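Z., the sequence and structure:
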Amino acid sequence: MKLTAYSNYALRSLQLAALKSPDLIRVDDVVQVHGLARAHIVKIVHELGRAGYLETQRGRGGGFRLAKPAKDVIIGDVVRLTEGPLDLVECFNPASNTCPLIGICKLSHALQKATRAFMAVLDDLTLADIAANRGELLARIAPLEEGIVAPMRKAR
């Protein structure tokens, strides 16, 4: 399974907000730490704000922060928001399926089971969990925030 870069950036934005909570985070903070395109982060922050995950503040001195406690943000829910339906193969979507094996294909059943297992793991994971090693994470990003080290070009 592979998540889109959009989901990855959304999770990284939320994680940084959790690490810096309750302070406001600027879009440029996410851009600098993770070496991402500003336009992508603006779009992500907007969507996460509309979904109730982030509280945004416009204008000079503005930014964003978590709208609810990190322990209440379920990673599986964020992935569902940013990914939409996880249609790994054509037959997962009845509206576009052209496969004649629908309903009897063991591969399809196995992939559905794998998708459910993948999402079950993410449903057991909260934003608090992925920010739990706060000290280590903040130490790792400190040089990036100060501009001492060139930021990563691709989020991992």
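Helices lie at 5-20, 27-34, 38-50, 75-83, 106-123, 127-130, 134-145. The CA atoms of residues 143 and 152 lie 12 Å apart.

Let me know what you think.
H.
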